[in-house]
Design a protein that fits this description.
By secondary structure, the chain is of the alpha/beta class. It has seven helices and seven strands. β4 and β5 form a beta hairpin. InterPro entries: PTrfase/Anion_transptr (IPR016152), PTS_EIIA_type-2_dom (IPR002178), PTS_EIIB-like_sf (IPR036095), Sugar_PTS (IPR050893).
């Protein structure tokens, strides 16, 4: 949007419970849209299944550019996490070789999520209670981003159990079903984050995974060094 000259629009990630009453537009996964509409019924809502669908964002930007030609007043989109979003922390999302697990297999998404949680516990990023809470929460809420990527992370209630922000990268070449028939994840990236740092981590991930060829390489590689090179750029 900045490239399109829409400098008067503020865009941020937010938990549904934190959506402010003056938000204009809310984009959510389809599993969460109904909750978002109850929270801020006056806002416009866009429901999607693939957060990495660049076509949707391009179309939305074009609509906003067209609207700006006729509307002079400032358009505001929620900035409720501004105080907790530290964009100067460049080292927040840094993987190490010990955080990467290639060639894994899982029969269910619960099994894949449980494994990611166990590795976060082993890495001393979270307590075992956090792992249990994360696994339970994912029965209720989709963590599938699209493009064969799933990002399970803890709930707001479990943040006090996180010792430090951490990430684990788990590759499932044969895929794990995370929801609908076409929601098959080959990359499961577990996050344990303090405060709202998971939003910064997810932002870093989506930037790093904005290329289909990169995703394909990550899903097939047998080299930990290649994963590090692709994600720690």
């Amino acid at each position: 949007m900045q490239d399109a000259g829409l400098s008067n629009i503020s865009v941020t990630n937010s938990a549904i419970n934190n959506l402010p009453p003056d938000v204009d537009l809310v984009i959510t996964h389809r599993d969460l849209t109904e909750r978002a509409m109850r929270q801020v019924p006056q806002a416009q809502h866009i429901s999607l299944t693939n957060f990495l669908d660049s076509g949707l964002y391009t179309s939305l930007t074009e609509r906003l550019v067209a609207a700006q030609r006729h509307i002079d007043n400032e358009v505001k989109v929620t900035d409720s996490l501004k105080d907790s979003f530290d964009d100067t922390n460049n080292n927040l999302f840094q993987l190490g070789a010990d955080n990467i697990f290639l060639g894994r297999k899982a029969a269910t998404k619960e099994e894949a999520i449980r494994f990611a949680g166990e590795q976060l516990v082993k890495g001393a990023t979270s307590s075992r209670n956090m792992c249990r809470r994360c696994w339970t929460a994912k029965k209720l809420t989709s963590t599938y981003l699209g493009e064969s990527i799933a990002v399970p992370h803890g709930t707001i209630e479990a943040k006090d159990r996180v010792l430090k922000t951490g990430v684990v990268f788990c590759q499932y070449p044969e895929g794990v079903r995370f929801g609908e028939e076409d929601e098959v994840a080959r990359l499961v990236i577990g996050i344990a984050a303090r405060n709202n740092e998971h939003i910064q981590v997810i932002t870093s991930l989506t930037n790093a995974l904005d290329d289909e060829t990169v995703i394909e390489r990550l899903a097939k590689t047998t080299s930990v060094d290649e994963v590090l090179a692709l994600l720690n750029k």
